[in-house]
Amino acid sequence: MLDSYGPEAKERMGFFTDTSVCIGCKACEVACKEWNLVPEDGLVWTGESYDNTSELGANTWRHVAFIEQSDPLRWLMSSDVCKHCTHAGCLDVCPTGSLFRTEYGTVVVQQDICNGCGYCVPACPFGVLDKRHLPRQDPPALPVLTKEEDGRVWKCTLCYDRLKGGHEPACAKACPTDSIQFGPLDELRERADKRLEKLQAENWNGARLYGRDPGDGVGGFGAFFLLLDEPEVYGLPPDPVVTTRDLPSMYRSAAIAAGAVVAGVLAAFVGGST
Amino acid sequence: MGSNMAENHPVGFQWVMEARERGARVFHIDPRFTRTSAMSTDWIGIRAGSDIAFLGGVVNYILENERYFEEYVKHFTNAPAIIHEDFVDTEDLDGLFSGWDPEKGKYDPTSWQYAGMEAHGAAGQREQGFETRGEQSGHGGHGGGLQHGEPPEEDLELKHPRCVFQLLKKHYARYTPELVADTCGCSVDDFLEYCSAICDNSGRERTGAFVYSVGWTQHTVGVQYIRTAAIVQQLLGNMGRPGGGIMALRGHASIQGSTDIPTLFNILPGYLPMPHTETYGDFQNFIDANTSPTGWWGHFDAYWVSLMKAYFGENATEGNDWLFHELPRVDDDNSVYWTTLQMLDGNVKGYIIAGENPAVGNSNSKAHRLALAKLDWLVVRDVVEIESAAFWYDSPEIESGELRTEEIPTEIFFLPAATHTEKDGSFTNTQRLLQWHWQATEPKSDCRSELWFYFHLGRMIKQKLAGSEAPRDKLIKALRWEYPTHSAIQEPDAEAVLQEVSGREIESGTFLDGYPKLKADGSTLCGCWIYCGCFKDGVNQTARKEPYWEQGYVAPEWAWAWPANRRLLYNRASADPDGKPWSERKKYVWWDEEQKKWTGLDVPDFEEDKEPGYVPPDDAKAEKAIAGDHPFIMQADGRSWLFVPQGLEDGPLPTHYEPHESPFDNSLYSQRANPRRQQFERPENPYNPVGSEPGSELYPYVATTYRLTEHHTAGGMSRTVPYLSELQPEMFCEVSPELAKEAGLEHGGWATIYSSRSAIEARVLVTDRIPPIEVQGRKTHQIGLPYHWGSRGLTTGGAANDLSSIALDPNVHIQEVKAFSVGIRPGRRPRGAALPRFVEEMRSRAR
Amino acid sequence: MSSYYGRPVIKEPVWQPEIPWYFFTGGLAGASSVLSLVARLRGNEPLARRSLYVAAAADLVSPVLLISDLGRPERFLNMFRVFKVTSPMSVGSWILGISGGASATAALLEATGRLKVVKYAAEAVSALTGGPLAVYTGTLVADTAVPVWHEARHELPFLFGSGAVASAGAAAAVAVPREHAGPARRLAVGGTIVENVVMQAMEKRLGMLGEPYHQEEAGTYAKLAKACSLGGAALIGAAGRRSRFAAVAGGALLLAGEAALRWSVFKAGFQSARDPKYTVAPQRERLGYGPSSATETNV
Ligand SMILES: Nc1nc2c(c(=O)[nH]1)N[C@H]1C(S)=C(S)[C@@H](COP(=O)(O)OP(=O)(O)OC[C@H]3O[C@@H](n4cnc5c(=O)[nH]c(N)nc54)[C@H](O)[C@@H]3O)O[C@H]1N2
Ligand SMILES: Nc1nc2c(c(=O)[nH]1)N[C@H]1C(S)=C(S)[C@@H](COP(=O)(O)OP(=O)(O)OC[C@H]3O[C@@H](n4cnc5c(=O)[nH]c(N)nc54)[C@H](O)[C@@H]3O)O[C@H]1N2
Ligand code: SF4
Ligand code: SF4
Ligand code: SF4
Ligand code: SF4
Ligand code: SF4
Ligand SMILES: [Mo]
Hints:
Radius of gyration of chain B: 27 Å
CATH topology of the domain at 5-104 and 151-248 in chain B: Dimethylsulfoxide Reductase, domain 2
Largest sheet of chain A: 4 strands, mixed
Largest interface: A-C, 87 and 93 residues
CATH topology of the largest domain in chain A: Alpha-Beta Plaits
Structural class of chain B: alpha/beta
Oligomer: heterotrimer
Distance between the termini of chain A: 56 Å
Number of helices of chain A: 7
Strand order of the largest sheet of chain B: 23-25-24-30-22-28
Strand content of chain B: 5-15%
Low-confidence stretches of chain A: none
Low-confidence stretches of chain B: 119-144
Bound molecules: ligand MGD, iron/sulfur cluster, molybdenum atom
Number of domains of chain A: 2
Shape of chain B: globular
Structural class of chain A: alpha+beta
Shape of chain A: globular
CATH class of the largest domain in chain A: Alpha Beta
Distance between the termini of chain B: 36 Å
Helix content of chain B: 10-25%
Order of helices and strands of chain A: EHEEHEEHEEHHEHEEH
CATH superfamily of the domain at 5-104 and 151-248 in chain B: Dimethylsulfoxide Reductase, domain 2
Number of strands of chain B: 30
Number of helices of chain B: 24
């Protein structure tokens, strides 16, 4: 996937988020916001356990989920993030090339290019990306064509700037329990396999890897997880598929449909008087 | 237990997680199922305020089932010591120990002494007999007044009916699993599971540790909570050994530092006692009274004189008793709560609040706000305008009309403080590690560090008083007050202060390498004897940052631990009486027969060359009086104390008392709560009816208060920060589905929670994480209240401390905010003047 | 409850009302340019000319709608930074750009009567891209994770295409004198019939995922679309030839129906994105799992 970088290509980097050791401290959320200057976006108490950020979005690039289960009493915590998919729907559909794949194999939005067309938002099978509706920071260049709100989409960059500087991402750095592990993806996968084996040997109820498999619908995640329950319990899709996997057949249908339009018009002229 | 480590010490909790990963069993015993419980292998829910019953049950289990570590108990603890024949236990006096004076409301501890000896205090204990208030200054009981290192009467067989071991057995015999379950509201099975687990995890090959924080301390019997754990750990042989111990996870970044070099009223640096008004005659008497004839407190004079030399330099001389007679005196409890009540009575004119927010953080915060409004002047030094600075125009009392801005006489000065990133300095963490941090950026505008403020304040006062002849100014004039400064704002050099704290030989100016070098003749100076050596060799030892993976796991090259860079106190106990490690697996410090010295992974907490077989001669003094097989060298007898003959205000053995405010009677004794607790019943601090008293049904639930990871204490540092505020944006209460049903509360809706003091509102979080409990055959409920909110900042809300009362532990004057009684009802609280009316109405119904 | 506190698994699109309107105008433009060229070739000049104008007008409105929907309208030119086959929006932008440019050019030349050859070329380009323009929006929405769109990926181009054809017919039926509007009327009626058949078939095939199309707002629009399109088509079919009024009223009704159809599809997408069950259930089924264990944990 990094062929186009030639010699500049780096090892593919990613995350293994092991939720079995996540203590729900939200240091990752705060560190991400601090480092990336992601704005605060509302003081809303949800009553959904200790989670008041609710979901990933333009202003939440790490999101810690809290799931209270009563029988047996469990409190699952899990820090979600952009999956940096091998086959990334967001990247595929972006018409401007704003979304791109970095030399580390991560998926990043170039904020100076994104025109806020919003296509990537519903294209992501995980609901990661969203448009920022907060007031824009830069002064409008073309007043007629300008909106008040930021209007671009934002998501985790896997701390592209830090990676370039040889640092690990802010969230991983802040995580006290190493629930967020950063590293070369191959290594992480190996580590995760061992971890799963250990947990299964210890009879951890429901432990499973999510997104580790390069054969899945998005070709494996660059940021994958160890979960303790089914993905949807955490608000994750059980079998995500990159939408563009079906694109060839979609184009075929579209081509036929376009042909049908012409055929239909032609047909309208058949028989009747002109 | 009594700690929510994952939430409040998340960085340290990584090691617990690692231990769990390596197979350790982690029990969390807490009224609530918290983020810590979620990460633990086991959780046991108990009623807030019942831990002594629980741990007492553990003691009973250990003794009944003979699970104690016999060799350790016999040699290293005071189990064999025989106690005074006049001693009578609570079991025989229905909840009181012998020596209770109902008139004074205090104990005379004479009958608690070891048999065959005269009462005598160790450091800081001497004044216990004083009338003023039984103020205990200095931390803990260090001595016992032994003339040489052994209790006069012992029974190594542990059979004598008055030996500590037998007393212990008798005292805890009634703490059966059934009693534990019925008092704490847990199940017998869970309790027994826990008992067998910690016993299995102790002995030669294994050790177990306790972790506690303010879930244990903030009770009217807080000190005794920890004492109970200490008994368990001594019986199991878990003290002074790697992987053992009782870890106090402390609070604010340098709260340990602020007790070592205290911000407390009753001690001076290094736990030296602050002199009293009713003091000891002359200086020599003071020294004698505080010097333990045996153990390391035997060098009290050297520590004292070195401190005076650090304060006053050449102005302190042997001839003027090192200025002892000029020192200020403690004349009463003088703690923050006492002072606040004095304020209410108009006896305090001016007050400085620096780095504290009593209008939110102190129990019965309303009383604090009312008190501040009685001052002539108030100085608040803080990084934000906190509730304690803004109470005069923004507080529940302004809203209710109980305070009127134009009628408040207090003149308030707000002085902006620099934050930790804007100054150099050291933090002393919970492990006694002094860790240096460097300034990252200059303070903005008028913000100044504490060091800057107090240095320049002192300098200016000294300047003003330079010509004064008034006797009261003598001490200030005598103060040595010179530190190099740097930068445009003339910031004092923090390292220079650390050097003074570490100590020097005065003549040569050389840095001292440890407290054994301190002298009583005035030739050394040292700002805090336990910190002596932290600038050894002229190197800032606290600034060392060698990671553990580049050294051993003990990591002696990371920062500096007091005393003597020792990471584990009393570590001689990690070896058996003969000096050999208890086991290969648990070896830590041991006697090297060839080199004839103690050695190991850590700095031995023992005289290096004292042989394990050393028996002190009869005339030995100080540390020389401690035998070679007695590791607890700060104690006069070198043993750890299962039974505390002296040093505690409320008894030599922990015993279960109900919290000051609880909806239950004591099922063990008719003495309901700690008889020695500090109570202050007055109009600003009324108490709820309790136990079986009429009216207690109006406040039927057990409330407990605590922290959230997302906020910090009274909120000045978190409710003002957007990234934290959005994570927990509103005050809420945690209730069980059953309680919600019983009280008609709706998840996500509002509740009003009330006590005799006030009422607050909170959003309702219904959760299975705070299940109902069954106590004394009665099902009841607990209500969880985070205490971070107040009226200012980005997120505002009811302050839990508006509900709590001022009722204190007698030893350390800490407030009981971990268990008190409240009522709850659906809906928002009454507004304005209706609020005090509502509270009053409930109270009158209760009467 | 099939997810975390019942929250959506995927994000709802952020597209604003401009977008369904654009689906409508884009379709109208595309099909009209085809209609125009075929009419031209068949010698129906009035139909050819008027349809060209309709196409050009719709082609001019379309980018305005699209630009106005952008979060950063001043950066609309970034659409032409790259040509990305994997992005139907990129492909579509180029199609719209070319088709719109061509039909506008052709219309201008038509009106001014100049540069015949260029005009023919432009007409040809416009008509050639007209088909794709009429259908690509179906593929555009289908190429997302929105369940009711993605699963309908093979029907949507036909639905949008037939709708486009119907609207082109309707517009021409309104704009062109009755005697020249025969093919237009047939197109309107035929398109409507095909469209409604496709819709029916699509909902049926989608099964559970068909639900959002007739629920809530989408359902209202769908009903409106059906009533208007069928009503309009009926009116045109039955009386359009005889009555100018019927042609205009029927055409207008039909156009309204076509707009409503786009709105219905648009809204159905939002609805299905909002309700996690449409994301989770089909995926679990795909994996061969039973009902989800996700339950609401808080009372
Ligand atoms: N994020 C964050 N971290 C902090 C702080 C903060 O405000 N925020 N504050 C710092 C400070 S100053 C301190 S002192 C420490 C305090 O650290 P902790 O002591 O861990 O703090 P708390 O949350 O007050 O109380 C701990 C637990 O005690 C439980 N508890 C209450 N009553 C009882 C009882 O009777 N028995 C038992 N066994 N448990 C009981 C509560 O349910 C709670 O879970 O944290 C420090 N760390
Ligand atoms: N109900 C209930 N009450 C409790 C507790 C509980 O568990 N329950 N816990 C108790 C405990 S353990 C504690 S520690 C207290 C804490 O209570 P407080 O100490 O009263 O509360 P904080 O909010 O920590 O106040 C510290 C203040 O110092 C300011 N500050 C920060 N840095 C500096 C500095 O460098 N200089 C100066 N001058 N100011 C600075 C901060 O802005 C903040 O306002 O609360 C106690 N009260
Ligand atoms: S998770 Fe979503 S946003 Fe992230 S790379 Fe994959 S498709 Fe793109
Ligand atoms: S919103 Fe921005 S990043 Fe997303 S698809 Fe459009 S241009 Fe690309
Ligand atoms: S990698 Fe960087 S941008 Fe992504 S969630 Fe972590 S801190 Fe935020
Ligand atoms: S920082 Fe780590 S432990 Fe804390 S919430 Fe994030 S992932 Fe979990
Ligand atoms: S006090 Fe806060 S910042 Fe410091 S280590 Fe603990 S969690 Fe981190
Ligand atoms: Mo604290």
